[in-house]
Specification:
Elements lengths: L1 H41 L2 H32 L3 H34 L8 H25 L2 H31 L4 H33 L23
Pfam family, one: PhoU
Main location: cytoplasm
Organism: Paracoccus niistensis
Length: 239
């Protein structure tokens, strides 16, 4: 009995350490979203470059989480419920890394956009959309820490709002391009940025779904609430 308690406490201690790494990673990703959006709106190339530079630390943390989780599985041989917890942190870390890649991509396009004409209103609209996604991500991580299924479900429902914001922006970009062909290149860059932010929302939703899996033992079986997204090439992260 005492030996079992010792093993259990060792597992809990190791898992808490990994979860702390994930939460730290989440804080870095939240900052990357906010700073990338601010750099875009203000055309701050130095801030955009800082976002790109810090992405390496996010990538390194994901590697660290994966290594720690693999070591925990090997050493502690967790049972089904505990294994579910370990696998969830791996998937959450992967989602956070992808969001960090999208923030880095926004920063890359910010440097290009700084040399192009300003498209009125779009910087603020994209920053508002990014702020919505940042809030989703923060709540998804909070729901994980608190094992709050209701908050996770709320995050999942809010993905619809992000889709609607993306669709509205897409129509706005089309209008600017039709009104003046000189806006085409800038609007194409802005569209890819909007799509990056929309994909960030998808990954925040994936984290919320992992929380529901941890709490209930099952992934949601109903389709995610989605807007009628326009068809366009989805930019790959990390490019």
């Amino acid at each position: 009995m005492n030996r079992d308690k010792h093993i259990l406490s060792a597992f809990d201690r190791d898992l808490e350490s990994i979860q702390a790494e994930v939460i730290r990673m989440g804080g870095m990703v939240e900052a990357a979203i906010e700073e990338a959006a601010r750099a875009l709106e203000t055309r701050d190339e130095e801030l955009a470059e800082e976002v790109r530079r810090r992405d390496r630390a996010i990538d390194q943390l994901e590697v660290q989480v994966n290594e720690s989780a693999a070591r925990l599985i090997a050493l502690r041989a967790p049972t089904a419920t505990d294994l579910r917890l370990v696998l969830s942190v791996i998937k959450i870390a992967a989602a956070l890394e992808r969001v960090g890649d999208y923030a880095k991509n926004i920063a890359k396009r910010t440097n290009q956009l700084s040399q192009m004409p300003v498209i009125p209103g779009t910087g603020l609209a994209l920053r508002r959309m990014a702020s919505t996604v940042e809030g989703m991500l923060r709540d998804a991580l909070d729901s994980y820490v608190q094992r709050d299924a209701a908050l996770a479900a709320d995050v999942r429902a809010r993905d619809l709002e992000v889709d609607q914001m993306y669709n509205a922006l897409f129509r706005e970009f089309l209008t600017h391009m039709m009104e003046d062909p000189r806006n085409i290149t800038a609007c194409m860059h802005l569209h890819f940025i909007a799509k990056n932010v929309e994909r960030m929302g998808d990954h925040a939703t994936s984290i919320a779904e992992q929380v529901l899996y941890v709490v209930t033992g099952e992934l949601p079986d109903d389709p995610r609430p989605k807007g009628n997204s326009v068809l366009f090439v989805d930019p790959a992260p990390g490019g």
